[in-house]
Amino acid sequence: xxxxxxxxxxxxxxxxxxxxxxxxxxxxxxxxxxxxxxxxxxxxxxxxxxxxxxxxxxxxxxxxxxxxxxxxxxxxxxxxxxxxxxxxxxxxxxxxxxxxxxxxxxxxxxxxxxxxxxxxxxxxxxxxxxxxxxx
Length: 135
Hints:
135 residues, alpha+beta, five-stranded antiparallel beta sheet, 5 helices
């Protein structure tokens, strides 16, 4: 099973982040958390890395359904979406969204399959819309 639903954009990092937020919102996801790995590693460890932002995306109806199936599923929520600069090619940004099917595999809870399938459809639509709107 693939860890992520992914696409690649040929744009700036800032543009990719903005477009990713918009694509997620269009599918009913809000961004609850944001972790700037580049800034965090620089501040805490003095280490340099490429632009790398983790967006904690949540679709409330899907999260509610998942929690009603398994209260521990919150350990795997929200759905993380990573926007990261390609370390090889300039102005190339990779967007990876967590594959929701992992929730079913990790928990072995068949009741989560329908929720994961619906989340996959929405995340895939967000990712696909990014690729469809390449400049």
